[in-house]
Design goal:
There is one protein chain. The chain is of the alpha+beta class. The chain folds into four domains: about 350 residues, Alpha-Beta Barrel (Anaerobic Ribonucleotide-triphosphate Reductase Large Chain), CATH 3.20.70.20; about 200 residues, Alpha-Beta Barrel (Anaerobic Ribonucleotide-triphosphate Reductase Large Chain), CATH 3.20.70.20; about 140 residues, no CATH class; about 140 residues, no CATH class. It is about 30% helix and about 20% strand. It has an eight-stranded mixed sheet. Strands 25, 26, 33, 34 and 35 form a five-stranded mixed sheet that branches. Strands 1-17-20 form a three-stranded mixed sheet, with helices on both faces.
């Protein structure tokens, strides 16, 4: 271990501040940005100003004479590592009528509006959920009461449509209701494994439906035992089936339930695992384990969880959450004497317990039923964050038994401190109303397994809170309050990545986002010090290693743990398929997984179609702004397009050459080739062409740009795309046609111009090398929103035009870009160029460049055309340089020397893309769609960036690259973190 760098230290102002906090790490810009955007209110600019507001607000629950004392204690607890949940930090002490509670569970009955056995009807439940989300709370539901599809509806003499159909209604409502003025509400949908519509539920999200839901299956022990024994299970409901279902074999059991059908448990279970492997959902909740372990088993039934699943809750139950940043309690981080300050941690946990109890008294409640439920049971959920980083700082690798033992000990200390503090609060404030010592401390539930000393104290003093512990996801609060310490119980996902954040003017600003433990290590030991073996990220671990950590901690947590088992895209299904079974056998209450894959990434619109609808002109309201519009995009697979850069060739490469003879002289055409082996080889293992260029004083002006653009197409591994490009060049007409000898025998052929003749020779050589053979992959063609140039009606459409003048060559012409409006994944539209052309006095070879770039413009990922245009910015030509204005969005007036007409045209096209908010003025995409597989950036000091991964559309950048990471939504394209924690 290298010695620490003895840099200046920010010494603690009190002996209670953990030693690890003394390291003078500079603050990350992203932390301040997230703090101001998500949590700060009014004039707040610093962490302490926000913490003071929260402390003051929660102290209002104290007796007037003690408020100043507790306000100071609450502020100190936050400085020492307690981070109240997001809703508390953003709303406590403000004038907002928003709840301080992150999430709830709401009951849903079977009738449309009337109560069903005391449970509100479907649309009453929808109204209650909308009010809850409007006030800032996420909502979980069990939809199992809703009668199955095809069940008899006596009141209307009709058939039921089933729970999934009503989930769509809740989904659309969630999409519409803005939550506490800042975000869309989160939802969890649960259906029991024995519901007759369970198969439809399993596959409900396969094609992008229910975007505003996480979904989980409620699984019973009986079902899992049937999976183990390969037995059949009955799918049942109390609602009577319709005539068709009865005719198909549905019957009523002796207990009154109707059996709709039977099927093998393993068949159903395999559907669950396959769907989870391919689509990252559904998750699984082990209902019997949840209810058997429940401290209030004697007075409530739990069938659902909050949206991130760390809180199994009864109807109208809430999760009042907060987390302690464990990294602040590591002393001598990374050193041989690294240790965890258990005493300091326990002290903060005790104060945090009191703060969360106070939240229940000061929060506005969206519904009276929620307030009543909370007052009877006073559930809170104290947890921790930064476990992964803490283990690294203690020199413990996440997937070792030593690390799991440390996590057990930390969880045990937290459990004991929280229950002890709650017992003391019961003396001061009274036990929760439904407390019954004999029932609470027996029956095999969590409380019955507490240490005997704690049980004796609880029996004597009572308990203020029925439940006290929950390990929640902490994505945004970790960024804002904990220097991006690892999230919750998770290991770090990446040591470093770039966050591209959309600014108010539509542009993007980039931030470096670094993991706390990695930053601290670099700060202490230098950027070049080798990382210790303890530095391991989530995707480097096996799925069983993730689950084993949950199993180690779960016995010390009375509700549940939010844990997403992230595995890489190539993780074998054979190793994945038993993961949930192992979780059940380990006594876990549930589990969620995420594996990025092409199935997820292929859906760029909610309702994909194999063939795009025709482009058509659409008239705006004033009848003057007519634009072409495409209503749907085709499917395309994430990272499917290769970055066609020239390979590094230190030893050179062979090239085939041919003399092009045209009316104004001769020049040489070269086709650069590489020996190829394996799947990239041409016919019979011959060379592969990878670039073309022209050389000679008599080559037509602009032809080098055609060659440069076509070279990138040769490297795409898409023969059909290359054929399309060469076809586009084959009919480029110039001043007059001419005959030219062509290979192999020098036969003379008539060509409309030099571009067409050059393309014909290139095609011949590519055919000889097998580079145009049929049947290979077509990634670029698949990523086009239109292969043909969009055509207008006789009504016409808008286009963008700009005049170009090069005094050095006497050229004066107009560049015109035809434009089309495309849909975006979030339901909006964006305008994109789709074709370009020239009119006036210009080099006719530019028509060939225009045809090539027009095809490039119709590739969905704007990074593709940006790459092509940037390559043309340095194209020069003898005596062709000239001075012209620099196009800028700011309107700044300045001029510069341009190396050629081509370079200036490329700059003008980039400028138009910048005007439309697609590329920046350097030609880089403002919105990275993720189709183009760009080279991985080289990061210093062992950092690892996050590659773009398949997922759902990101609300920030619009890319289908948002995955579920550490219980939170996370965009692998722009770094956006969903509101969680």
């Amino acid at each position: 271990m290298p010695p620490p760098n003895q840099a200046s230290l920010d010494l603690p102002t009190t002996s209670l501040v953990p030693l690890a906090a003394a390291a003078s790490l500079p603050a990350q810009d992203i932390s301040a940005e997230v703090l101001l955007e998500k949590y700060a209110k009014g004039e707040e600019q610093t962490l302490d100003e926000l913490r003071a507001r929260v402390a003051r607000a929660l102290a209002e629950a104290e007796l007037p004479e003690a408020r100043a004392h507790w306000e100071a204690k609450f502020l100190e607890a936050q400085r020492r590592g307690f981070v109240p949940a997001g809703r508390i930090n953003s709303a406590a002490g403000t004038e907002l009528s928003a709840t301080l509670i992150n999430c709830f569970v709401q009951p849903v009955g079977d009738s449309i509006a009337l109560a069903d056995d005391g449970v509100p009807g479907i649309y009453t439940a929808l109204t209650e959920a909308a009010e809850t989300m409007r006030r800032g709370g996420g909502v979980g539901y069990d939809f199992s009461r809703i009668r199955p599809k095809g069940a008899w509806v006596g009141s209307t003499q009709s058939s039921a449509s089933g729970p999934v159909s009503y989930m769509r209604v809740f989904d659309r409502s969630c999409e519409t209701v803005e939550s506490a003025g800042a975000r869309r509400g989160a939802q969890m949908g649960v259906l029991r494994c024995d519901h007759p519509d369970i198969e439809e539920f399993i596959h409900a999200k396969d094609q992008g439906d229910l975007r505003n839901f996480n979904i989980s299956i409620g699984v019973t022990d009986a079902f899992m035992e049937a999976v183990e024994s390969d037995a059949e299970v009955e799918l049942t409901h109390k609602a009577e089936p319709g005539k068709k279902l009865k005719k198909a074999g549905a019957y009523q059991r002796g207990d009154g339930l109707w059996v709709y059908r039977r099927l093998r448990a393993r068949e159903l279970w395999d559907q669950v695992m396959r769907s989870t492997y391919d689509h990252a959902e559904p998750g699984v909740l082990f209902l019997d384990r949840i209810n058997n372990d429940n401290n209030l088993y004697y007075c409530e039934r739990i069938d659902a969880t909050n949206p991130c699943a760390e809180q199994p809750l009864p109807p109208y139950g809430c999760c009042c959450l907060g987390s302690v940043n464990l990294t602040l309690f590591v002393q001598d981080a990374f050193g041989p004497g690294a240790r965890f300050d258990e005493e300091g941690f326990a002290e903060v946990c005790r104060t945090a317990t009191r703060m969360l109890d106070n939240v229940l008294d000061v929060t506005p409640w969206p519904l009276p039923a929620q307030a009543h439920e909370a007052s009877n049971k006073r559930r809170v959920g104290l947890g921790f964050t930064g476990l992964g980083d803490t283990l690294v700082m203690l020199n413990l690798r996440y997937d070792t038994e030593a690390a799991r033992e440390m996590a057990r000990r930390i969880s045990e200390v937290m459990r004991n401190a929280a229950y002890d503090a709650s017992a003391d609060l019961a003396v001061e404030r009274g036990a929760f109303p439904l407390f019954n010592a004999d029932l609470y401390l027996s029956g095999g539930n969590f409380a019955s397994r507490l240490p005997q000393g704690l049980k004796d104290k609880i029996r004597a003093q009572g308990l203020r809170n029925s439940h006290l512990l929950s390990i929640a996801p902490t994505g945004t609060i970790s960024l804002a309050f904990a220097d991006n310490a690892s999230n919750g119980i998770e290991p770090a996902f990446s040591w470093s990545y770039t966050r591209k954040k959309r600014m108010p003017d539509g542009s993007f600003k980039e931030y470096a986002v670094e993991d706390h433990a990695w930053r601290l290590y670099r700060h202490l030991f230098g950027k070049d010090a080798p990382l210790s073996d303890a530095f391991v990220t989530a995707l480097e671990l096996s799925a069983s290693d993730h689950a084993s950590m949950v199993a180690a901690v779960a016995p010390y947590v009375d509700t549940a743990i939010s844990k997403t088992v992230n595995v890489p895209a190539d993780y074998p299904y054979a190793e994945f398929q038993d993961l949930y079974t192992q979780a059940w056998k380990s006594g876990l209450k549930g589990l969620a997984t995420y594996r990025p894959n092409s199935v997820l990434g292929s859906v760029l619109s909610v309702e994909p179609t194999a063939t795009p609808e025709p482009l058509k002109p659409v008239s705006e309201e004033d009848g003057t702004n007519r634009r072409l519009r495409l209503e749907r995009l085709p499917n395309a697979v994430l990272a499917s397009l290769r970055w066609p850069s020239r390979p590094e060739l230190p030893n050179g490469n062979p090239a085939w050459s041919y003399m092009i003879r045209h009316p104004h002289g001769d020049f040489a055409l070269f086709v650069g080739e590489l020996p190829a082996e394996g799947p990239d080889a041409g016919l019979f293992g011959k060379n592969l062409p990878f670039e073309v260029w022209v050389n000679g004083a008599e080559q037509p002006r602009g032809l080098s740009a055609v060659a440069k653009t076509l070279s990138m197409d040769l490297r795409t591994n898409d023969a059909a795309w290359l054929r399309l490009k060469l076809d586009a060049l084959a009919t480029v007409a110039e001043e007059r046609a001419f005959e030219m000898p062509v290979p192999p025998g020098g036969e003379r052929r008539l060509f409309p111009g030099v571009v067409a003749a050059t393309a014909a020779v290139i095609r011949w050589r590519c055919e000889q090398l097998g580079a145009l053979q049929e049947g290979g992959p077509t990634p670029v063609l698949d990523a086009m929103f239109s292969r043909e140039e969009p055509r207008t009606s006789t009504m016409g459409t808008l286009a963008w035009a700009v005049d170009v003048e090069n005094p050095a060559t006497g050229e004066q012409f107009t560049l015109t870009l035809k434009e089309v409006t495309l849909p975006t994944p979030d339901g909006g539209h964006i305008t994109r160029p789709c074709a370009m052309g020239f009119s006036g006095n210009y080099p006719k070879a530019l028509d060939g460049m225009a045809r090539l770039l027009s095809l490039d413009m119709r590739v969905m990922d704007p990074a593709w055309i940006g790459m092509k245009l940037r390559k043309l910015l340095n194209v020069g030509e003898p005596l062709g340089h000239f001075m012209a204005p620099v196009p800028t969005l700011s309107g700044e007036r300045r001029q510069q020397i341009w190396p050629s007409t081509v370079a200036y045209v490329a700059r003008l096209v980039i400028h138009r893309y910048a005007m439309l908010g697609i590329l920046d003025e350097q030609g880089m995409p403002l919105v990275e769609m993720g189709l183009l597989q760009a080279p991985a950036p080289k990061l210093a000091g062992g950092a690892n960036s996050i590659p773009a991964m398949a997922g759902k559309p990101c609300p920030e950048c619009g890319n289908a690259t948002m995955i579920h990471k550490d219980g939170c939504d996370f965009c692998t394209a722009c770094g956006y973190v969903g509101q969680c924690g």
